[in-house]
User: Fold these one by one.
Assistant:
Number 1:
Amino acid sequence: MPGHLFEPGDIPPLGTVPRQMYASVIRRERYGPPHSAFRTEVVDVPEAGRGQVLVLVMAAGINYNNVWAALGTPVDVIAARAKHGAREEFHIGGSDASGIVWATGEDVTQVQVGDEVILSGCQWNEKAPDIRLGADPTTSTTQNVWGYETNHGSFAQYTLVHDYQCHPKPPHLTWEKAACFLLTAATAHRQLCGWPPHDVQPGDPVLIWGAAGGLGSMAIQITRLRGGIPIAVVSSEHRAHHCRTLGAHGTIDRRDFHHFGPMPDPADHQAYTHWLQGVRAFGRRFWDVLGQRRSPRIVFEHTGRDTLPTSLYLCDNAGMVVCCGGTTGYQANVDLRYLWMRQKRLQGSHFANLRQSRAVIHLAATGLLNPCLTLAGTLADIGTAHQRMHDNQHPPGNQAILVNAPRPGLTTLH
Ligand SMILES: NC(=O)c1ccc[n+]([C@@H]2O[C@H](COP(=O)([O-])OP(=O)(O)OC[C@H]3O[C@@H](n4cnc5c(N)ncnc54)[C@H](OP(=O)(O)O)[C@@H]3O)[C@@H](O)[C@H]2O)c1
């Protein structure tokens, strides 16, 4: 039915592209709490340009980046794109999805209409000078996160991606399982395995913040698979249980400690002593849980402002704090003495390249990595799912919603 909108679940014949679609949309005037920032609207289906692919979204994964998009801070993603000439006054988020290739633009050679795919969340210009000179594309000046920095993410019946973002969907994975894990798993994989010589080695203790969350649940499993010893930080017994089930050696309940936040100025003797006592008590708890007096060789960071000073203090001599986010704030202070005197590494890490994405898809396909899915509803539930994440009230692991898949449990189109 070209030109006609269809209801989710009532999919047109393969390759038939309607003019319009349903999408969960953010507009600038709705920036604020996610539950009211997202609204289902009817918008035009985008056209696949050169090297691009239009994918029918079967299921979409929920990630923290669209909490930030909904809030309109620290980046107003709509205004940022407008500065670069974009004319659309809305944002369709979503950086994880499974679906079916529905149309291809010019010069697309790697996929064809009908392919069942999982989409990875990073885009770049393959002809960029830095990539041509051999840069990892995720470090290119042209790199953008699809469905956050770019428009037409997966919270819609159709999404627009570059052909290299399409990876074969493992046939036995349901649409919703295939949609939920790639962004967090690939990011965690790069953090833990992508920065040699600080890649996890057998016997390495690894401290994992937010270990029951999307990233953390993947990090526990990847650390285990590499022979490391994951120690999980959580804020409830329910989450601690989830982490132990995934293979955490032990857990630390962060509610037992009260020194978190920016590190005080050592000149403020009282405040600094309080911080030092807190961070040392946290370190002793780490040793107790580990069962050895060893510090973490790797600290898995994404929590940011409130935890970074603790991470850097605790990290072993010549170890690494590897950071991909700042949930509690992105301006964190660092005592440089711990960094240089003990020769530690503070490493930034951002999503993953294609090889790293394929690696975690393989782990999920072979059953070595549990995607940790919670199904969070359909398009209409996107705001609520992000609100729960914003309020830290979401279930452990990764969340996904059904878009065109008519019900959970399906692995193919029909
Ligand atoms: N750069 C990248 O490529 C990339 C990729 C993925 C995610 N990220 C970023 O990484 C962050 C986490 O993503 P996610 O998907 O894992 O989110 P998530 O599922 O919400 O997990 C975050 C975890 O952080 C913990 N947390 C919340 N407040 C905290 C606090 N004050 N102190 C310590 N821990 C706290 C929570 O665990 P407890 O309350 O149980 O401790 C929560 O489970 C987000 O900021 C996201 O934007 C970046």
Note: The chain has a mean pLDDT of 96.
Number 2:
Amino acid sequence: MTNFTYSAAALDRLQKSDAEIFDALMHEETRQSEGIELIPSENYCFPEVYALLGSVFNNKYSEGYPGRRYYGGQENTDTIENLARDRAKAVFRAGHANVQPLSGCAMNEAVYFGLLQPGDVILGMDLSHGGHLSHGHPVTNMAKIFKYVRYKTEQPDGHIDLDKVRAVAMETKPKLIICGHSSYPREYDYAGFRKIADECGALLMADVSHLGGLIAGGALKNPMDFGFDVMTTTTHKSLRGPRGGMILCKKEHGAKIDKSVFPGMQGGPHMHQIAAIATTLKLVQSQDYKNYAKQVLANAQSLAKALLAGGAHLVTGGTENHLLVINTATGFGITGDVAEKALDAAGITLNKNVIPDDPNPPMKPSGIRFGTPAATARGMGEAEMQQLASIMLRVLRAPEDTALLAKLREETRAMCKRFPVPGIIPGTPQTQSAAA
Ligand SMILES: Cc1ncc(COP(=O)(O)O)c(C=O)c1O
């Protein structure tokens, strides 16, 4: 077997042929190793994923689907795509799976074009209440084609009032209703949404991009078990695969979805990405991964509890999944951008985030968003979450105290040393494929 993936030989060549990119790669390995990653959409992929992303599958054009391709030489690509599709259907209990979307936005757009007509109404969650750009925010191209309407969460507790969702749905008559978010720390009432969709004759979609891995690991509910028509998920967040998107749906929608992805939106699928998705979908069936998914939620609970005890104002008052949002403006008198920068200086990476109906603009919003998937992938547990909360609280109370931030940076670094990043051997910035 020949595998040059992230091998010493390939790295050696890179160092000689492009020192600038090589240096950036080494620095990024160090940054990822020595800081705590709390961006809830980020994670450390399985080391096997690096092997496949850097493999010869990168070289292959495979327009079409297994058994129906527009290029020859598909005996191995058909094998991997069939495995990826079969595993996706089994893991998510779906009638049909398409594993070709290049990213999360592309997968959602493929659903809209596959199942709807231009001008149709789509009901999704307001972005400042937790929804995602790709659910038709006015700045996106999709908003020029479809008519998006919104539901919001109720303040101050931040939960979704299904009676209000039903009222908007009955008034606007959407053809598609979306349950999905990138910053909503609560579970959806999937059965309640199914009822509303049935009442108003809409198709029902869940975008579980953030939650895909937690659903696969059995830690959260699976919308497909509640009769959803379509479910989309990115493959690189809690799922710990390569960057990409996946569409799961009822069998009856399969042909339309496939046609929308190819030839509707994309050309050649990224077969190295699909090979890595296939392997990811095998790895998430292990007991180890199920334990990981459970621990992600336990860590989020533990972090929430410690932050609340320290005076942080959590949007919705807590979390039921992997992510948390703090209103830094009310709790600490600082905007999210200030908090993000100060925490970065202390070695903790997260992102500034709007809060529901935020009075501040998106670049200087009132909150921060963070989550536990990446820290948990390093093996951190509830004891580390207590320490992390303590560091975060000290930063948020004194974001301009540079001496304190430097001291806390050392505390973070020491903590990280005890929990190596999967796929990076500490002190040897190379050979990721050799790591456990
Ligand atoms: C809910 C949701 N949908 C879609 C996407 C888009 O994914 P991508 O960045 O891969 O296009 C994201 C990414 O953050 C997301 O959180």
Note: The chain has two domains: 56-283, 287-417.
Number 3:
Amino acid sequence: MKRVGIYCFSATGNTLRVCKLIKSELEALGAQVDMVSVEEGYSSQKSPLDYDAFAVAYPVHGFNAPANVVEYVKNFPEGNKGYYIIKSSGEPAPANRDSSHQIVGILRKKGYEMMDEFHYVMPYNMIFRHSQDMVDMMWKRAQDAAPFDAKEIFEGGKGEIKQKLRHKFISRLFTIEHGGMRLIGRGFKVDMEKCIKCGKCVKNCPMHNISFDGEKFTFGKSCLGCVRCSFNCPVNAIKISVLEGWKVNGAYKIGNGMEYDESKVCKYCNKSYKRYFTEEGGNSIEKQR
Ligand SMILES: Cc1cc2nc3c(=O)[nH]c(=O)nc-3n(C[C@H](O)[C@H](O)[C@H](O)COP(=O)(O)O)c2cc1C
């Protein structure tokens, strides 16, 4: 039986949902799939060398992979095998295309080859809240794409990845996001008038960066800007510093797929979303399958 490892980081659930879709498609093909949580830290017992195929999954942050995922893959042993990238982002902007460049560079030096990248557009957890129609169309698109992507992983297929110079430039420029978020995260604050002291933010921060001494919250130096804290705060009490105007609070209802309806596509990035929804076959915005 083919063993597949999916190393996944998901701050607010989108990437995890996509990975679970792909996992169930892989299982339908007869694979045994291990979901490995990046935030639990690397363990040699979950080495990529133990799998017949593996994938690294993450949400796009500032046209890049989050810092914790980049750090995580540095722990992989040297190996000589192919792997896949699964990523989710809030918009299908071409600037997201080369977001894996750090991971790919690190793993290339260790001997691994990136075989293909699967890009899923999922509801934004930052900038603005997508409408329920958009959410439902995205989910339908993800459900349609997952069987193609799972089959490719299962069969060890290789995709043709085309990166344009300007997209490479944008991703590299935005690697400052990692340091920027550590700085901005220090400025996160809790409105104590609203706070109900449920402790969710402290308990769930993937970087253990939030502490509470009974009176006040402290945000440390390792924030990823992943917004799990503010997104899931039940009383919307967390202010995310200069990003406050872009804050999205509260989980989406994901589960009902909806057929594509052009009139329901949001105005923002309208053309890119339309292209994403209407492309034939799998899900990649980089290429048609
Ligand atoms: C700090 C931050 C930066 C983001 N940057 C981008 C971006 O550059 N491009 C994009 O399309 N979406 C961006 N997003 C949106 C997320 O990639 C998107 O909502 C993703 O599906 C979240 O996945 P998760 O729920 O697994 O964390 C960003 C979100 C955050 C919190």
Note: The first helix runs from residue 14 to 28.
Number 4:
Amino acid sequence: MSSPLYPWQQSAWQQIQKMNGRWPHAILLHGPRGIGKTVFAEWLAQSLLCETPLVDGHACGGCVSCGWVSQYSHPDYRRLRPEILESDDAQADPDEAATPKSAVKASKAPSREIVINQVRALSDFMSISTHRQGARVIVIYPAEAMNVAASNALLKSLEEPGPNTVFILVSSGIDALLPTLVSRCRQFPLSMPSREIALAWLAQQDCHKPDQLLAEQGGAPLAALEAFQSETFQQQEEFLMHLRRPDSETALKIAEKLQKTPIPLLISWMQRWLYDVFSFKLTGKIRYYPRYQKEIDQVAQAMSLPALLTLLENNAERKAVADHPLAPRLLIEEILLDYAGLSQPHN
Ligand SMILES: [Zn+2]
């Protein structure tokens, strides 16, 4: 298993490895938002717990400990996060998407703070000896989410740390932390990658207009990618929504709305959709958009095979000119009208 660290984190990793064997009880990783500090902290935790780490300090990825850490079930590992982050994870699971959100959420909104009970729960964890006779690691993020009571409770734990215990605090707002807490930690800054490195990485993630997004997000590459993905995801939903029940009139409206969406993206969404309709028609299988199985089924029934093949062919031809369309909006209109003309879903 290769390290999940981002390219701009390699030198910070080498720096922190210089502490090897002399780990302080508490490390404070801090730096700007959107650069991957949490990934770094969790990987450091896994590497400290790994039973057969590599020479460069990275976790092996194959031992029992590594397996447990990746499942968040290692008996000597704890994460302290605000409750709201736990529920975000649950909702990020696409299989959960069908469950109404109101049913997932309890009547009380999940807390944005790390509360004292979460810190108190650590004392039981720290009072027994470690299960694997190795380190015991507690990752806390974002550390500034700890309220005052929680911070004071943590301060006590830091004053009497158990043997082999390492706290890793992660913060994008070190000024919001209790100064006494900060002074108990070995500070370790993680810095913003250079613009060149960030742009190269974003390009690898198929991010369009990376320089614009990066500038909007103050140079933070993960924040830029997140912004890109959330915007394009909504555009994709709108586009697919239309493909489910196409007609010429809404085709023009959608073309106007999506005229700023990169054409290569639109064409790839169309291609995937057509592929799914085609595949469902022939084999009953859906590869890209299983969440729209019902709609794909309807379209597949309504569309003749020759019409489908014509659309696939037209789409492939457009792909060739997609990077530099002369009139993007007209091209989107053409794509959608072509599709609407060749599909007659019955309702
Ligand atoms: Zn390992």
Note: Residues 90-106 have pLDDT under 50 and may be disordered.
